[in-house]
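Hi Q.,

Before the meeting this afternoon, I wanted you to have the NAP prediction in hand. No need to reply - just skim if you have a minute. The sequence and ligand are here:
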Amino acid sequence: MLTHSSPAGPTTHLSVASGMYHPFAYLFGLLQLLGCARPPSLPFVRRSTAKAIGGMSNGKIVCVTGGSGYIASWLVKLLLQRGYTVRASVRDPDDPKKTEHLRALDGAAERLHLFKANLLEENSFDAGIEGCDGVFHTASPFYHAVTDPQAELLDPAVKGTLNVLASCKKGSIKRVVVTSSMAAVAYNGRPRTPDVVVDDTWFSSPEVCEQDKQWYVLSKTLAEDAAWKFAKENAIDIVTINPAMVIGPLLQPTLNTSAAAILNLINGSTTYPNLSFGWVNVKDVAMAHILAFEVPSASGRYCLVERVAHYSELVRIIRKLYPSLPVPEKCADDKPFVPIYQVSKEKYKSLGLDYTPIETSIKETIESLKEKNFVNF
Ligand SMILES: NC(=O)c1ccc[n+]([C@@H]2O[C@H](COP(=O)([O-])OP(=O)(O)OC[C@H]3O[C@@H](n4cnc5c(N)ncnc54)[C@H](OP(=O)(O)O)[C@@H]3O)[C@@H](O)[C@H]2O)c1
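Predicted structure with the ligand bound:
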């Protein structure tokens, strides 16, 4: 059973098996086909992103797993704006913190259907995926404070991916876009220095991740590997999106791990970590997912990094943007700064997209954290 989202709160149950969906979804798709209706324009995306918005959903139905997450919420928003009918999985459809921001999106009342599913339950996604044209598999736990890495991170990431792909196989899905990560790309012991260009031919090494007790990184590495193997064995067309640290505005009311990385620089901390990460805007990440589904020639892995920057550089940017905000003055250790490196932009740009500059992404994150009262200034 799917839950038909409504901003007003009450829900209507629609049967997946009987293929009954909101009639407006079909009407909208039909009008689009006839050239009479266009999804609303997207005023917030970058110019070349906006150009890429020419594509039409043609009334297609897609599934987004983990719909209430940080990245997925933007994905759902942009898919609805593009005219898609979206089925989004949530673990608890009765938790308003996970659903209200989705139900409030433009088009949600007519074309968003929430359904309950858990990565660890076999067949959990069958009903939500059956009859869809495409699936975006974003659900996977992303946090670092774990006590049991196997149960908390590895099982949901790997078994969850296989469960979702098994449902896709049963549902004859045309293409699955899997949200992987730069975590599955760059952690293999190869040196990463300013002259090195990391690209989609790199794969993280499970041994290196395990040695360094990088459990989240391991979960993404194993999950992507499992996805490619399953796809090959079962002839499923998958594309992976491999973003680095994702920042930019939050749609959901709760704090996610990557936005917390910015919050931790403006909430009174006295030191910043001695780490260099790639950074990318959440709207660019969401749009890349959509184009990876829509562009027939899209294939393989898409590394998404606007810029690799050390935390000291982030602090410098924040200080320039908000001179009165107290930011950490010192690095957490006295070792040499972890070097930056480059990440190839070619494949991302082949989707017709351009990156939001890191300065804009940081500003959008801070404004959003302020608006949602995670920080006061
Ligand atoms: N943010 C980043 O910097 C970043 C970078 C690279 C890749 N990624 C990947 O992007 C995806 C989304 O990340 P995010 O940053 O948007 O994280 P997030 O806001 O924490 O979202 C994670 C989502 O996964 C769902 N989930 C976790 N365990 C689940 C389970 N057992 N069953 C069903 N759903 C489960 C959560 O559902 P509930 O809402 O029910 O908790 C939530 O919707 C993940 O695959 C992550 O690895 C993130």
